[in-house]
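Record format v2
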Amino acid sequence: MKASLRELAGAIGARLIGEDAEVTGVASVESAAAGKLVFAQDEKLLARCMQSPAAAVIAGEFAANAASPKPRLISGQPRLTFARAAAWFGAQEAFAATIDSTAVVATSAKLGHGIGVGALAVIEENACIGDRTRIGAGCVVGVGVEIGEDCTLFPNVTIYAGTRVGRRVIVHSGAVLGGDGFGYVRDQVSGHYEKFPQMGRLEIEDDVEIGANTTIDRGALDLTRIRRGTKIDNLVHIAHNVEIGEDVVIAAQTGISGSCVIGSGAVIGGQVGIGDHARIEEGVILGSGSGVLSNKTVRGKGIVFWGTPARPLKDHLKTLAALARLAKK
Amino acid sequence: MKASLRELAGAIGARLIGEDAEVTGVASVESAAAGKLVFAQDEKLLARCMQSPAAAVIAGEFAANAASPKPRLISGQPRLTFARAAAWFGAQEAFAATIDSTAVVATSAKLGHGIGVGALAVIEENACIGDRTRIGAGCVVGVGVEIGEDCTLFPNVTIYAGTRVGRRVIVHSGAVLGGDGFGYVRDQVSGHYEKFPQMGRLEIEDDVEIGANTTIDRGALDLTRIRRGTKIDNLVHIAHNVEIGEDVVIAAQTGISGSCVIGSGAVIGGQVGIGDHARIEEGVILGSGSGVLSNKTVRGKGIVFWGTPARPLKDHLKTLAALARLAKK
Amino acid sequence: MKASLRELAGAIGARLIGEDAEVTGVASVESAAAGKLVFAQDEKLLARCMQSPAAAVIAGEFAANAASPKPRLISGQPRLTFARAAAWFGAQEAFAATIDSTAVVATSAKLGHGIGVGALAVIEENACIGDRTRIGAGCVVGVGVEIGEDCTLFPNVTIYAGTRVGRRVIVHSGAVLGGDGFGYVRDQVSGHYEKFPQMGRLEIEDDVEIGANTTIDRGALDLTRIRRGTKIDNLVHIAHNVEIGEDVVIAAQTGISGSCVIGSGAVIGGQVGIGDHARIEEGVILGSGSGVLSNKTVRGKGIVFWGTPARPLKDHLKTLAALARLAKK
C-alpha cells in the first residue's frame, strides 16, 4: 500500500507542509522505518519524529514553522488525524469478499453484497448479514440474527438467536452476544432454583466495538441495548436488561449487573462492579476497581468517582489519607 | 405455539379464574401483546397487568377476587409459576433432533436417542451423549466425556477429555469445562516453574447451569465437583479441586481458588474473590465484590457477609460509617 | 503405560531405595490404586503414603531410612520430582500426529514434522507451525502466525494474524491471543471515539502457559511481549504494549492495563488490577485483589504487597487493624 502525502492529506483533512512524498503506512516513532508516517502531540515528540527515518509527521499547528525538511501534515487534532490515516490505509487493503466453501450457511440466510465468511463459520436460518460485513472463521451466527453493513466479526464469535447488530460494529474473538441472562426463581417449597425466562433480545447499535471474550446477555423479557459508538474492552460482563448510552467507554473486566442504565459519554474503568438497577448518569467517570451498589445513582458530568462505594475522587482521597494517618498511630 | 389457559393451568399447577382463553407465550407487562401471559406479585402490578393487552395474568391469591374480566391463573408463588409457564411453552417448541452432516462425530462415541448436534461440532472418541441432549454448533466434546440426558450446550462450548456432566445441564457459549488447573512446582535450582500434574476430573451434577465464557478446571489429581442445581453466571472462574454444594448461586466474574469448599444453598455475588482452601459454609450470602482470604471459614446460614476480608454486613457498615466520619475530620 | 521404578528414577533424577517394581502413573495419596506413584513432603505424609496401596513413594532424604518395604524414589525436591514423573508418563502417551481431514489448512501454511491438527481447526495463509506441535479442534490460527515446536493448543483457541509463539507453549481453550488493544481517540468536535491503530504484534516466548479464556492483546504500534517461562491462569486480561518478564506467575482474573512492565519472577495473585504504565519490579509479590494505580512503581524482591493502593503487607495489616478498632468505637 502506497499513497502520496498530498492524496492522504486530502483524505484525512490535514494540511501538507513541505514536499510531497510517498508513504506506506503509520508507525510509532520508536519503530518507524523509511516511508512511514508518525505523529507528534508536542515539540519534544516533534524533535524525535524529525530525527526518525519516518517519511513525514502528523502534528499540530505548532509544527507548521518547524525548521526541518521533513514534510508535515498539520491538523488541529494530530492524534485523531494519525488514527484516521491508519484507518485510511486499512481501508485500502484488499479483503477477500468470498464465502469460504467450508462455511455452513443456511439457505434461508440473507447475505448482502461483498461479504466475507471465513472457514468453518456457521450462519443459521434466517440470519441477515449486511453488505461488506466480514464473519471470521469459526463464528456462529444464530437463527434470525441481523447484522448491519461493514461489520467485522473476528474468529470464534458467538451470537445467539435473534440478536441485532448495527453497522460498522467490530466484535472480537470469543465474545458471546445475546446469551441467557442470570435469572432464577427459587421454589420456596423445594429450595431449588428454576430458570426465569430469558427470551428478550440484545440490540447493538452502529459503531460499537466489543472486546475479546466479553459477554453481553439478552434481556429477560425485553431488551438489552448498547447504543451508538460505545466501546467495550475484553472480558467485560453486561447482564440482562442493561441500557448503555452513546459513546460510553468500558474498560476490561468490568461487570454491569442486570437492569443498570449507563448514560451517554460515561467512562468506566477496568474491573468496576455495578450492582443491579444502578444508574450511572451522563458523562460520569468511574475509576478502575470502583464499586457501585445496587439501586444507586451516580451523577455528575465529568466528575471522577472512585472506591467502593464509589464517591467523588476528592472524598475518596480524603478517606485514603485519613486511613494512612490512622495506620501510623 | 398456542395453549388454552385451562391446559396450561393444569400443566403448571395454577387455578384458573375467569374465562378460558388462548395464550401464545409469556411477556413482560411493558411489552405484552394480545395473547400473552404476564404476572403480578402485588396489587399495584396487578392493576398494570389488568390494563395491558395481555390475555391473562398469573398472580397470587390476592388477585382471586379482583374486579376485572381478564382471566387469572392463581398460584402461591406467581413468579415461579410464570417461570414454569415460560418453560412449558419452551418445551413445546420443535427442536431439530438431527446430527448435522458437517459435525465430526467419532465412530466410538455413543449417542443417545433424539439428540441434536449442530453444524461443525466435534464429538471425540468414546464420548457419551445422553438422550435428547443438544450440542450447539462449533462445540468440542473431548475424549471420553459423558453428558447426561436433556442437556443443552450452546455453540462453541469446550469440554476437556474425561469430564462428566449430569442431566438437564445448560452450558452457555464459550464456557470451558475441565481445563487444566493452575499448578506448578518451582525448581529451587533453576528458578523455573514446572507443571504439576492436572489429570483429575471435573464432575457436574444434574440441573446445573453454567454461564458464557465461564471456566471450571479439572482436579489436579482428584476431582472438581459442582453439585446438583447450582447456577453459575458468566465469566466465573472455578479452580481445581473445588467442591460446590447443591443449589448454590454464583454471580458473574467471581473467582473461586483451588480446593475451596462452598456449602449448599450459598449465594455468592458478582466479582467475589475466594482464596484457596477457604470454606464458605451452607447458606452463607457473600455480597458482591467481597474477598475471603485463603484458608478462612465463613459460617452462618442466611447471614450476609461483605467487604474484604468479608465480615457480617452489620460490621462492614460500621466500618464504612467510621471511615466516613474519619474523612470529615 | 508402564515403567519400572529403576527406569523412571533414571529419567527424573531420583534415587531408588527398595526393590524395583512396575508403576503405571502418578496419583494422590487419597486416590492411589495399586501400581501408582505418590509423593510425600514430610514424615506425616510419608506415613499415609506407606499405608496406601501405591506402588512407591517419591520423598525427600528424610525417607531414605524409613522402616517400610515400599520402594521410595528419593529426591531433594520431591514435589518437583513427582511433577516430572507425571510429565514423563505424559510424554510416553501416544499422540495422533495427524492432520484431521476436516481441518482447513491454507496451502501456503508451513507445517513442521509430526504435528497434530484437530478436527475443524483452521490454519490461515502463511502460518508456520513447528515440529510436534498440536493444534486442538476448532482452533483458528491467523494469517502469518508463527508457532514453535512442541506446543499444545487446546480446542477453540484463537490466535490473531501475525502473533509469534515460542516453543513448548501451552494455550488453553478459549484463549484469544493478539487481539486488538483498547485504544481510541475522541474527536473533540463530534465527541465520538475513533479507533487508534492496533497493528502491533504479540510475542510469546518459550515455556509459557496461558489459561482458558484469557485474552492478551497485540501492541498498538509495537509489541506486547510475554517472556520465557511465565504462567498465566484463566480469564486474565493483558492489554496492549505490556511487557511481562520471565518466570512470572499471574493468577486468575487479574487485569494488566496498557504499557505495564512486570519484572521477572513476580508473583501476581488473582483478581489483581494494575493501572496503565505501572511497573511491577522483579520478584514482587502482589496479593490477590490488590490494585496498583496507573504510572506507579512497586519495588522489592520477595516483598508481599496487598490492598488498593497496594502497600507492603505489614502496612496493609496495620490499616486493617486500625479500621477494626475504629469500627468498635
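Helices of chain C lie at 5-12, 43-51, 78-92, 313-328.
The CA atoms of residues 291 and 308 of chain C lie 4 Å apart.
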